[in-house]
Design brief:
The protein is mainly β. Among the domains are: 1-71, no CATH class; 358-497. 4% of the residues lie in helices and 47% in strands. The strands form 11 sheets. Strands 7-8-9-10-11-12-13 form a 7-stranded antiparallel beta sheet, with no helix packed on it. A 4-stranded antiparallel beta sheet has the order 3-4-5-6, with no helix packed on it. Strands 14-15-16-17 form a 4-stranded antiparallel beta sheet, with no helix packed on it.
Length: 497
């Protein structure tokens, strides 16, 4: 008991200490921003900036006269304010870009890229059209000189030196999916740049003939070792759907799964195979309707052995992947229910009443949102609440909008004002904000054709990456009357009084 109390006190002290060391951007009266200590309005220095955005671990993007730089708690000019884009702090590196107007005066998409370590040392200088954040010690980029050339920037063993590997492959824009780590070994996933025209032929009964596919009329996808050896090669490699399993096709009409050794894991008989979650995947295949004597595409769920867990039936309109051990299927409502939840054995465990609709794709923090028609009176509206994973109503439907839970918090709104609730349904931030922004670690959005590290996004988390968060290092960005500032988990607002 004494040891437990001592541990609790130690963690509490450390937590308070870490908070006391944390810095937060504060909006000043004159519209500039300064850095203050967490939970206070106490400025650490007199520096003022046009904008400040957190990069994590007390590193901040700072903006002056339209250009960005980086500072930390003690060094105010760690990276000078000379850059148009600062990407997020990534595996010990900060990627900084400036427009290359001298060589490309008519383009706003060409950059000179400088890569810094977190001590402010410039460790690499390169001209690129695009460069991604580091993943497992590797960043990928396209050179300005040959825009279809694929290159890798790799961290060598004698960190922090970087090494450029020119692979000279054509690619599509799926940069963030191009580096695959399987069993600690790294591979390049080469997607085809284009495909030649293939004439589709039909038999006398209207059936589609399998097209002839060869090297002469098709550009094949490949999975390649970093040293250049081809591991997998198919007309289409859709994506990595499990630890070392790829969804591929031999003829562009039916898909199956193979592993990195090219062993067939799932037979080639499906129209599509989604990513496996909890060992389950949503698949669709053509099923014969005996009454109409024709084939229709139906959805079901299989496991990694290829066993059908949820059968391909007419009543399935859509399916969600498993989360918290359940999958949800939308119903056609003719049975008096809006949908049903299945367990991993394919057994129905809960039917959703017809006056409710599940609105989130999966459970988050053991909660999933639903909309309920709370009445027929004209002034009453459909409200949002939450089921727990025992299918009890955990949070009563009373909000106009409620996002999925994210790290213990959900963004909710009522009468066009936003706030945050916790998993108990208690308001953490009051319903008074015009916007609450997600801290969006962005690997897919573009600004003038260039990747950005993250943006602050007011949209729902359903549309955002799984790594997006509401609170980032205990603070969230909000807006009232077009004034943007930060609030912490205690509701403290960082505005100069």
């Amino acid at each position: 008991m004494k040891n437990s109390l001592l541990l609790f006190l130690t963690l509490t002290i450390l937590s308070k200490y870490s908070f006391s060391q944390q810095l937060v951007p504060q909006l000043n009266k004159n519209g500039s921003y300064s850095l203050v200590k967490f939970g206070t309005n106490s400025k650490i220095d007199e520096n003022q900036y046009d904008e400040i955005e957190p990069l994590g671990d007390n590193y901040f993007k700072i903006k002056l006269k339209g250009l960005w730089g980086v500072r930390n708690q003690s060094v105010t000019n760690l990276i000078p304010t000379d850059y148009d884009v600062i990407q997020k702090k990534s595996e010990g590196y900060i990627i900084s870009k400036k427009l290359n107007q001298q060589e490309y005066p008519k383009s706003d998409e060409k950059f000179i890229t400088h890569i810094y370590d977190t001590l402010g040392n410039k460790v690499y200088d390169i001209k690129t059209y695009n460069i991604t954040d580091f993943k497992n010690g590797i960043s990928n980029l396209i050179n300005l000189d040959r825009e279809v050339t694929y290159s890798l920037l790799s961290v060598e063993n004698d960190y922090p030196n970087l090494k450029l590997i020119d692979l000279d492959y054509s690619i599509t824009n799926e940069f963030n999916k191009s580096i695959i780590s399987v069993n600690s070994k790294k591979y390049l996933f080469k997607k085809k740049k284009y495909k030649n025209s293939i004439v589709l032929e039909y038999d006398l009964e209207g059936g589609l003939k399998t097209p002839e596919i060869s090297e002469t009329n098709y550009v094949f996808d490949e999975v390649i070792e970093i040293d250049g050896d081809i591991i997998l090669k198919y007309p289409e490699i859709d994506r990595l759907v499990s630890d070392d399993i790829f969804n591929v096709t031999k003829n562009t009409t039916t898909y199956g799964c193979v592993n990195i050794n090219n062993d067939t894991i799932i037979p080639f008989k499906y129209n599509n195979i989604s990513e496996f979650k909890n060992g389950m995947s949503i698949v669709d295949k053509d099923i014969l309707d005996t009454l109409k004597n024709t084939y229709f595409s139906k959805y079901g769920i299989i496991n990694l052995k290829g066993d059908v867990i949820i059968p391909f039936t007419n009543s399935i309109l859509s399916l969600n992947n498993f989360s918290d051990g359940f999958s949800y299927k939308l119903s056609d409502r003719r049975d008096g229910f809006s949908g049903s939840f299945y367990n991993i054995l394919g057994k129905t465990v809960f039917k959703v009443p017809i006056n409710r609709n599940i609105i989130h794709k999966k459970f988050e923090n053991k909660l999933i949102g639903f909309k309920e028609d709370i009445g027929t009176i004209r002034d009453e509206k459909i409200k949002v609440g939450f089921y727990d994973n025992n299918f009890n109503i955990k949070i009563f439907p009373k909000y106009d909008f409620a996002d999925k839970f994210n790290n213990g918090f959900s963004k909710v709104s009522l009468n066009n004002k936003y706030g945050l609730i916790n998993t108990s349904g208690n308001l953490v931030l009051q319903l008074k904000y015009d916007k609450i922004f997600y801290h969006h670690f962005n690997h897919e959005d573009y600004i003038n054709g260039d990747y950005i590290s993250y943006c602050f996004n007011n949209s729902t988390s359903e549309d955002l990456d799984y790594n997006d968060s509401i609170f980032h290092e205990n603070i969230v960005r909000v807006e009232i009357d077009k004034t943007i500032f930060y609030v912490d988990t205690n509701g403290f607002e960082y505005i100069e009084k």
